[in-house]
Write a structure and sequence with these properties.
The complex is a heterotetramer, with 1 copy of chain A, 1 copy of chain B and 2 copies of chain C. Chain A is an alpha+beta fold. The radius of gyration of chain A is 26 Å and the shape is globular. By secondary structure, chain B is of the alpha/beta class. In chain B, strand 3, helix 2 and strand 4 form a beta-alpha-beta unit. Chain B is globular and about 40 Å long. Classes of the chains: A alpha+beta, B alpha/beta, C alpha+beta. Strand 2 of chain C pairs antiparallel with strand 2 of chain D. Bound molecules: adenosine-5'-diphosphate and magnesium ion. Magnesium ion (MG) binds next to loops of chain A.
């Protein structure tokens, strides 16, 4: 084959340098098919060539970790032989092009990652970012993404128990759709994605192979420009029904000794699944493409190898036991075909029409890419922004006005518009429903449960990506503490712009360093994750958006407090450090959007102790309610507790004198590490004692009761007005027809 | 001996395990019935659970009704045996013409998963006669196609014949559009066949079977039904 | 397949509203139904038509809520 | 509105399987799309057609995965 042109290489997301590297390593020029396979596996999406060296800072060392990064999903031990398997993944680019199907297939993909480990998925979560809802195009995209997430999860029967959603102009061109899945498996049924045992057959099961998403992996690795709509790859339409059957069949086989290895067909399709399985098993795979069932006529080997058709799995089966395995798929009315076998040479060999059409060493395919280390630098504007005053023009609003506007901001408001479109209860195990801090899914046959939360903090990240990543981890941990859960492990999705821009590379480096530091200090192993770069439409990068998902254990699910204040007369406490920073806050966004001023300080050691204290208070039953302060600060958290419980409150904050800014920072500052707790008056002493024991600041603010939320001397709003404002945000914006 | 509850499993069914748990809590013995078989395995009561049988792709329940198992369910129903269809099961029973009417896309055009109140309209047949008419139950719904429809003359017949079993209502049993989550005609949440032995309902009683899940009213419904069936 | 005229069609309503919002005020009504394209072998048009009619009655269409009509065309046309 | 020929059509797949299960083995393929019936006022056929074409492009059809075609008929016909 003649050396490919620059344009051809670009199509494959390969550089000239990478091409020459391949030629050198192979000792010959790769043919077109081989080049396509190399391009896909060396894409950022599959190879992590830019981020890999950074990710090595994240540690998965902890006694509870059974499987760390590198497999389909991470696994932690829950005790008594039960394992929890989870991962988060992005589907940003496909969702930008076709929001319903993009989001749906994102959910489908993460589910496959989890059941590929033999685990039954028990919970889904989604982290979403859009532009602001004043824009009809954003309303459309938001509505359709929610529809897509719901469509897949609802149909397959896995509850979507939580998530987070943020609207900010910075995501107008690039929405973010991250999906997380949590599954359970008993130790003997845990599966691995390996191909081993020379002569063992390789099966492809599930959907037929079509021309879907060819170059999808490379597509996610290059910048989307306006013209992308013209040359976009075929959009994939998900088939959750087929996946449901596939899931049941795979889980039925998980305990069988006939199954050697199982892997889903994700990005780069058969190429990556076979190559990675074989690499892990220290073997090779030979595929006969004539055996691959196709949806369309006339598909070339290139198309078959790079097809990203959904709802397919690759299995390696013990020789002689194919019929037994196929019987299970037959029962589920699923197609299964032997398409190849395990070989001793560590190669991927492809034949078609009786001829070998490609042959690549796995060392080259899987690890032979050239690591990238684009230059990075801290942009000057960051320095200036950090030093600026957070509210340059002050606030034109009274405290009451600002308070109600915050409650009515789609970022703080009630999220039921979203989660009531998701079946969040199927399985009968969701004991804390979405809408509050962390969701809790009980573990059958035991008294305990799993708590899960996903969080991100992109505005702080714009000012200081290191801090932003840490704040995201801290927030997820706080959400878990509020349901009395001890965090076990973390998964993360790093959503960034184009790393070839120096400032984006700097953001990525900083964020990963911050993530590593926070996880170390909070003793959270990182067991899985995903990187999504090139979130840039027309040159505008998204803010650095590391999203973290944390899973924890709740000791006794019968003792969980409900959301919000529980009874009039209960005492209200604020627990944790007293920061009131407005840099990157929601109030700042409402006032005009510029991200300025120092982001919240973070003392990770204090954060850890505060989490311990709150966890103890909640799990021993001393706290009757617990909620953390996040967007909108103390005042919004307080109002949320009131609205959720249907009870007012009277509290005092700060000293006697009114601060110079009229109290905005005191009420709406987003200092990290704070919680609002309420306790029975008899438990006030216990509250103070536990906090003192953990050396965590704790202040009594006031009492639950009345029909107003009152901060004495500063502001008060009627409970009904607060409740109405919370419903206004998302539901209000989405009330009209969605075009 | 306890009552044996057969739980139908179609490809795409997802609440069979939830139903089995619920049946056990109510003191029954669950047994799974695979769609491709023709056996009810001695089931006294047949439950068609929720899910998306065959993906609900053509119309919810349209393909499932032809399953071999459904022939056995039909015989059981025609012989007066109790059959309960929940959510997708209700849709299948309508498609199979074991129940009148049809279930259409929710009028809000969105999937809805939320808690609802239901008013028991008639205490008739083996499944409902253990409950007082007027009783208000609380249990969740979870569907995209739950808007009950029957042609005008048939609707009249249903009302007159005591076939309207459950209606969406407020906490005190009051009717109103604000309590109707899907635009069902006359707020109908569940219907009986003429004989009263086949009940279809969109809400999920099996999700309301423990205080931990927020309500036990679904358990109450099944316990009352098993009590009516009497000792086995 | 079209919804019978007496059946409420919220999807059609949403389409109408959407079109009005975009300024297509000339639209009076819209009704949303299904379009199914079957490829099948048959000895002639007539027999194809009678088989398809049967398929519609038995599976494709729910007579309580939907009406159907169909056209037979030879493949390639 | 029909799904573009290269796009995966799970609904069509289910219909085909459903028909096969009922014994209609002559069915080779089915594709499921949408049928929208619009009632609108226009001065003539031509202008109706051009408006509808625009509506399809702007709202009714999802050009990423669907194709559309339409017919104009006078009301009452
Ligand atoms: N996209 C979503 N999907 C499901 N649940 C969501 C989504 N977005 C928000 N929620 C739910 O809304 C509630 C509030 O979200 P958020 O304000 O982000 O909580 P927190 O500040 O405690 O992290 C949470 O229970 C969350 O699970
Ligand atoms: Mg929180």
């Amino acid at each position: 084959m003649a050396a490919p042109s620059a344009a051809q290489l670009r199509e494959l997301a390969l550089t000239e340098e990478e091409y020459h590297h391949a030629v050198r390593q192979l000792g010959r020029a790769p043919n077109e098919l081989e080049l396509g396979m190399l391009g896909a596996l060396w894409s950022e999406h599959c190879s992590y060539k830019t981020s890999r060296r950074l990710l090595s800072q994240l540690s998965s060392q902890a006694p509870q970790v059974v499987v760390g990064p590198g497999e389909n999903a991470g696994v932690v031990d829950l005790g008594e032989g039960l394992l929890c398997c989870f991962k988060i993944e992005s589907h940003n680019h496909p969702s930008a092009i076709e929001p319903v199907q993009g989001a749906a297939t994102g959910v489908g993909g993460i589910l496959r990652d989890v059941f590929a480990m033999g685990a039954r998925p028990v919970a889904l979560l989604d982290a979403l970012r859009f532009g602001e809802l004043g824009d009809p195009a954003q309303r459309h995209r938001f509505a359709k993404v929610v529809e897509g997430v719901g469509f897949y999860g609802n149909c397959i029967g896995v509850p979507t128990v939580g998530g987070e959603t943020y609207f900010d102009d910075a995501y107008r061109g690039n929405c973010l759709v991250n999906a997380m899945c949590v599954g359970l498996v008993t130790a003997p049924r845990l599966l691995h994605a390996v191909a081993r045992g020379v002569g063992n057959p390789v099966l492809l099961v599930g959907a037929d192979t079509g021309r879907d998403g060819i170059h999808g992996a490379t597509f996610a690795s290059v910048q989307l420009d306006e013209g992308a709509e013209e040359r976009r790859p075929a959009v994939q339409v998900g088939n959750p029904f087929l996946e449901k059957c596939l899931m049941e069949a795979c889980l039925e086989l998980a305990g069988s000794s006939a199954l050697v290895g199982l892997q889903d067909c994700g990005a780069a399709g058969l190429t990556s699944s076979c190559a990675e399985m074989a690499r892990r098993g220290g073997a090779g795979v030979r595929l006969d493409l004539d055996q691959v069932a196709r949806r369309e006529l006339g598909m070339t080997p290139y198309e078959v190898m790079l097809s990203e058709s959904q709802e397919r799995m690759v299995l390696v089966v013990e020789r002689g036991r194919v019929e037994e395995v196929r019987a299970v798929f037959d029962r589920w009315e699923l197609r299964s075909d032997v398409v190849g076998e395990v070989i001793a040479q560590e190669e991927l060999q492809i034949s078609s029409g009786g001829q070998m059409v490609a042959r690549l060493p796995l060392s080259l395919l899987v690890e032979g890419f050239l690591p990238r280390r684009p230059p990075s630098s801290r942009p000057l504007e960051v320095e200036r922004a950090l030093r600026a005053a957070p509210l340059t023009g002050g606030s034109p609003w009274t405290l009451e006005e600002a308070w109600l506007r915050l409650l009515a901001s789609p970022n703080c408001s009630d999220t039921s518009w979203i989660y009531r479109q998701y079946d969040h209860q199927v399985g009968d195990d969701t004991v804390v429903l979405p809408g509050w801090d962390a969701a809790v899914v009980r573990l059958r046959g035991r008294g305990d449960g799993l708590a899960v939360s996903v969080d991100g903090a992109h505005r702080s990240s714009l000012l200081d990506p290191r801090r932003g990543a840490q704040l995201a981890v801290a927030e997820a941990v706080r959400n878990l503490s509020c349901v009395g859960a001890r965090p076990l492990a973390l998964t993360n999705c790093l959503n960034f712009g184009n790393p070839e821009k120096e400032e984006v590379m700097w953001q990525l480096e900083e964020a990963v360093a911050g993530l590593a530091e926070a996880c170390r200090q909070l003793a959270l192993p990182v067991v899985s994750g995903n990187v999504s770069l090139y979130n840039d439409l027309s040159g505008d990068s998204i803010p650095p958006t590391p999203v973290v998902g944390v899973v924890g254990l709740v000791g006794d699910i019968r003792r969980l407090p409900g959301p919000g204040f529980a009874a009039a007369g209960d005492l209200i406490y604020v627990v944790g450090p007293g920061g009131t920073e407005l840099g990157g806050s929601e109030l700042q966004r409402l006032l005009g959007g510029m991200v300025l001023g120092p982001p919240p300080e973070l003392d990770l050691e204090l954060e850890r102790r505060a989490a311990e204290a709150v966890r103890q208070l909640v799990s021993e039953g001393s706290a009757r309610s617990a909620h953390d302060c996040s967007l909108g600060g103390l005042a919004v958290a307080l109002a949320e507790c009131c609205v959720a419980g249907g009870l007012g409150a009277v509290v005092r904050v700060g000293g006697q004198s009114i601060p110079a800014d009229g109290g905005h920072a005191l009420l709406f500052g987003e200092g990290s590490g704070r919680y609002v707790l309420s306790v029975d008056p008899a438990e006030g002493g216990r509250m103070e004692e536990v906090c003192a024991g953990w050396r965590v600041p704790c202040a009594r603010l006031g009492e639950v009761g009345g029909d107003q939320v009152e901060i004495v001397g500063l502001a008060r709003i009627p409970l009904a007005a607060a409740a109405a404002a919370r419903l206004e945000g998302i539901a209000g914006a989405m009330a009209g027809p969605v075009l | 001996m306890t009552w044996r509850c057969g739980i139908a499993v179609f490809p795409g069914t997802w609440s069979e395990r939830d139903c089995a748990h619920w049946v056990e809590l109510a003191g029954g013995e669950p047994v799974m019935l695979w769609h491709a078989e023709r056996e009810l395995k001695g089931a006294d009561l047949v439950v068609l659970p929720g899910g998306f049988a065959h993906g609900d792709y053509l119309r919810a329940g349209a393909i499932a009704r032809f399953a071999p198992l459904m022939a056995a369910v039909r015989d059981h129903a025609l012989a007066g045996g109790p059959v309960l269809g929940i959510c997708n099961g209700f849709q299948i029973l309508c498609e199979a013409q074991l129940l009148p009417g049809a279930l259409l896309r929710n009028s809000c055009l969105q999937f809805r998963c939320q808690s609802t109140h239901l008013r028991v309209e008639v205490g008739r047949g083996p499944l409902l006669s253990g409950l007082e008419p007027g009783t208000v139950l609380r249990m969740p719904i979870s569907h995209g196609e739950g808007r009950y429809y029957a042609p005008p003359d048939q609707l009249q017949e249903l009302e007159a014949g005591g076939q309207v079993a459950l209606r969406y209502c407020g906490p005190a049993g009051e009717l109103g559009d604000e309590h109707n989550p899907n635009g069902s005609l006359e707020h109908i949440a569940g219907v009986l066949n003429r004989e009263g032995n086949v009940l279809g309902m969109m809400p999920h009683p099996e999700r309301a079977c423990e205080p931990l899940l927020g309500s036990e009213d679904g358990l109450q419904l099944l316990r009352a039904a098993l009590a009516v069936l009497g000792p086995r | 397949m079209t919804l019978k005229p007496v059946v409420n069609d919220p999807q059609g309503l949403a389409v109408t509203q959407g079109l009005h919002a975009l300024g297509y005020s000339e639209v009076l009504e819209s009704r949303v139904g299904k379009h199914i394209q079957l490829t099948l072998t048959a000895s002639d048009r007539q027999s194809a038509a009678s088989r398809v009619e049967e398929m519609c009655r038995r599976l494709l269409c729910n007579g309580v809520i939907e009406d159907f009509h169909f056209q037979v065309a030879e493949a390639g046309t």
